[in-house]
Every structure is written in structure tokens, then in C-alpha cells.
Amino acid sequence: MPQLNPTPWFFTMLATWVTFSLIFQPKLLTFVTMNPPSSKPPTIPNVTPWTWPWT
Question: pLDDT tens digits, residue range 41-52?
Fold first, then answer.
């Protein structure tokens, strides 16, 4: 069965992985996130329960 022969597909997978690792990954890692994580503790909002008129 020809689809089980890894010879033509292994080089394609290897070339794609090398291209991603050497070209795209360094460019993606240089981007600065728009919402960087902060070291502040999360604030808990003061929530008051809703008073229902029929209860």
C-alpha cells in the first residue's frame, strides 16, 4: 500500500519542522504581548446580592 510508505512524506515533515523552528519560531517569539501578566494579586469585587421584590 503506497500510503504506508514514509519515504516521500518524511522529508516533507522534516523540512516543515526545520522551517518552522528556524524561521517562524524566532519571529513569533519576538512579539510583545499586549496584555502582559502582572504580579498584582487579583482583586475580588464587592458583590451585593440582588433583592428580589417578590421574596
Answer: 888 888 888 888
